[in-house]
Amino acid sequence: MAAPRPRSVTLACLYAGIGAAFLFMSLLSVLWDWGSIALQDQIADVLDQQPLAGLELDVQTVLDGLRWVLLAGVVASIAGMVFAVFAFRGDRGSQIGLTVLCGLAALTFLASGLVGFLPALIAVVCIALLWNADSRRFFAGEEQPLELGAAPAVRQQPSAPQTAHPAAPPPGGWSGPPAPAPAQLPPYLPARRPASVTLSLLLTGIGAAVVAGFGALSLLVVTVGRDEYERTLNEQGFMQDVLRSSRMSADDAIAIITWSAVVWVVLALIALAVTLWAATRRSPAARKALFALSIITLVVSVLFFPLGLLWTAAAVVVLVQVSKPDAKAWFGAA
């Protein structure tokens, strides 16, 4: 029977999960309006003040750098939500991952000044709750110790000595009934695939199929309907604003879309092959391939923000699932 979940784990996962969700929504709202004139004016005002005035920093350079920092925060917030869910279910790897993220969050909030003191304190409290005695027993799978009262003393009555009588030998040298034949062992049944492996295969396969279809559709649009697509980019007002703010032409945008679609299709086909391999061949190499593919997906999904947010979350889930002991044991029992 699984160890009961202590209240400290529930509170830690609740605080960390809600905090990660709030951070995710805040960063998403900032990135959604990224590069606006108002934001550029604010950054320009900050750069004109000391001690940044002497560094001669460009507004666009600062915008690009801050965007990567915020994207890293988005990935960390998604990972925090995933770790909070699986730590709530008793996953030890998620306990460690959530602890690392809470530590990084505490340092980041403290560096922001007095306004970040309360979030940093909450992050430290989450770490303390995740690693107290009850939480450590829970993640180790140990039962909580029971506090029982003293057992009542029972006075034993002296028993009369028993006189042993030897059994009489069987007549005529009879040696007794024949020993029964050993029962036939049941046929060997292979171990069932654990839920962690099944979830990893489903997420990888479905995500790869969606990416392959979307990439193939994009290639079809930019090759067969290139003239119409280029006309749309040059004539539509919204697309012209996007191209102008990105400092690229319609040909540059079509080239980027084409090469991006090629990368999507190639990675999706590799992911489908790895999924089929991991589903049919139980080998440690297949688990490592799933793990490596999830890391690649995590990096690529950040580059295609915000379209890749779902794949970012799926990659974090797969990383957690294939790192579980039951998944390692299943892939290693080939």
Attribute tags:
membrane, transmembrane helix, 334 residues, 2 domains, mainly alpha, transmembrane
Characterize the structure shown.
There is one protein chain. With 334 residues, the protein is an all-alpha fold. The protein folds into two domains: 7-140, no CATH class; 195-332. 69% of the residues lie in helices and 0% in strands. The protein has 13 helices and no strands. Helix 1 (7-32) runs antiparallel to helix 3 (59-88). Mean pLDDT is 80; it is low at 185-190.
Brief account:
The chain is mainly α. Helix content is 69%, strand content 0%.
SSE map:
Blueprint lengths: L6 H26 L4 H11 L11 H30 L3 H20 L5 H14 L2 H8 L54 H30 L1 H10 L1 H10 L3 H31 L3 H20 L5 H14 L2 H8 L2
Helix pairs in contact: 1-3, 1-5, 2-3, 3-4, 3-12, 4-5, 7-10, 7-12, 8-9, 10-11, 11-12, 11-13
Keywords: Membrane, Transmembrane, Transmembrane helix
Q: Separation of termini?
A: 28 Å
Q: Structural class, from helix and strand content? A: mainly alpha
Task: Give the ordered list of helices and strands.
Answer: HHHHHHHHHHHHH
Given the C-alpha coordinates, what overall shape results? flat
Beta fraction: under 5%
Mean pLDDT: 80
